[in-house]
From TrEMBL:
MF annotations from Gene Ontology: metal ion binding; molybdate ion binding; tungstate binding
Protein name: Molybdate transport system substrate-binding protein
Binding positions for molybdate per the UniProt entry: 47, 74, 183
The keyword Signal is assigned to this record: yes
Family (UniProt): Belongs to the bacterial solute-binding protein ModA family.
Residues spanning the signal sequence: none
SUPFAM superfamilies with a match to the protein in the record: Periplasmic binding protein-like II (SSF53850)
KW ATP-binding (keyword) present: no
Keywords: Metal-binding, Molybdenum, Signal
Alphabetized InterPro entries for the sequence: AvModA-like_subst-bd, ModA, ModA/WtpA
GO BP terms: molybdate ion transport
Superkingdom as given in the UniProt entry: Bacteria
Length: 263
């Protein structure tokens, strides 16, 4: 078992403020007059929230370009782009949603990047009467409710369901499942004690009160995180700068620190 480390100082304040504001709220950085006209609008999977806030700050410091992030379930964000949302970049936790947007010519395939991979974990609150260290432990009577993201539009929810199906546990546990609209909401349920356990992205576990163990990666399809430029973007030059920055060592170190792996 491992215990998640706490982000220190101002990082904690930023994280909790953003989390309780909820998904699909904008999170940007201070700008001056010279950057007001070139700020980037980015739709990003909820699993990227904490890493992208730090990466966005590093990008601001290097390039002087403000980024306004909006977070949510990858499927819901993809639909926003189909509906004409005025954004520059889209970061998805699922290959399927990105491929759909490329096929429908909403995303420029030439600027598509696979930049990290997500990791699925089984999490439980340290105050639980019994530890939940493996999927089979979810059958215990003490585990009354289990949170996952909604598998209909959230890749980590889809992966969580697949892991339980592979383990032969889905039918037995389905009545215990509580769905969050996103993986960060599923995390909130366990943090507040509303559920006994959760299957989550490692990247959203920020509290030292939450213990977790890794789920065998053969139990679910790879959680490939792609980012691509929206065809109608009016900030293509700056969007390209951010795509390039994501491939630099500084950004990769941040992603690794927040629980992702490299492709």
């Amino acid at each position: 078992m491992r215990k998640a480390s706490v982000l220190a100082g101002i990082g904690v304040v930023i994280i909790f403020t953003l989390l309780w504001m909820g998904d699909l709220k904008a999170g940007g950085f201070l700008s001056d007059e010279k950057t007001e006209d070139n700020k980037l609008q980015v739709l990003a999977a909820s699993s990227l929230r904490f890493a992208f806030e730090e990466i966005g700050e590093a990008f601001w410091e290097k390039e002087g370009i403000e980024i306004v992030f909006q977070y949510g379930a990858s499927g819901n964000l993809a639909q926003q782009i189909v509906n004409g949302a005025p954004v520059d970049l889209y970061a998805s936790a699922d290959r399927h949603f990105m491929e759909r947007l490329v096929k429908e010519e909403h995303i420029n395939e030439e600027n598509l990047r696979l930049f990290c991979k997500g990791i699925l974990v089984l999490a439980f609150h340290q105050d639980n009467s019994e530890p939940v260290e493996k999927l089979e432990d979810l059958i215990k009577p003490s585990v009354q409710r289990i949170s996952i993201a909604n598998p209909e539009h959230a890749p980590y929810g889809k992966a969580a369901k697949a892991a339980l199906e592979t383990a032969g546990l889905w039918q037995e546990l389905e009545e215990k499942i509580v769905y969050g609209s996103t993986v960060t909401q599923a995390m909130q349920y366990i943090e507040t004690g509303n559920v006994s356990a959760a299957i989550l992205a490692k990247s959203v576990i920020y509290s030292e009160k939450i213990n977790f163990s890794y789920i065998d990666q053969s139990y679910y399809r790879p959680l490939d995180h792609f980012i691509g430029m929206v065809e109608r973007s009016e900030q293509q030059k700056n969007a390209q700068k951010f795509l390039s920055f994501l491939q630099q060592e500084e950004a990769e170190k941040i992603l690794l620190r927040h629980g992702f792996s490299m492709p």
